[in-house]
Amino acid sequence: MVIGHAKHLADSGHEVYVLIDDQGGQVLASGEGLDIITVEMLLLAGVRLGLVPVGKLRSTYESLRPFGAGLPTWKASTLKIDYERWRQASG
């Protein structure tokens, strides 16, 4: 349903971003040409803005997993790698 509405809005000329935690849904949305925002992206943005303490990044992510059946495990997530890249670039 979300992808259908987003696709309609995008086709009507609107700038649309879809927040999807389910990896299968992300693949479908991407296949429709939609821009995706993941939970990992939101958490990293929270760290960058000082809204999520760095020391709480993993525990915050893990606390969200029971509510998002499509969220990968911490080990399978790109969040730790993305955080390290950002940290090194911010140096």
Topology:
Layout: H1 2-11, E1 17-19, H2 23-31, E2 35-37, H3 39-48, H4 57-64, H5 79-90
Parallel strand pairs: 1-2
Description:
This protein has two domains: 37 residues, no CATH class; 53 residues. The protein is globular, with a radius of gyration of 15 Å. Helices cover 54% and strands 7% of the residues. With 91 residues, the chain is mainly α. It has a two-stranded parallel sheet with strand order 1-2.
Please give a quick description of this structure.
With 91 residues, the protein is mainly alpha-helical. It contains 5 helices and 2 strands.
Number of strands: 2
Strand portion, in percent?
Answer: 5-15%
- Distance between the terminal alpha carbons, to the nearest Å? 42 Å
Mean pLDDT: 89
The residue ranges in which pLDDT falls below 50 over 5 or more consecutive positions are none
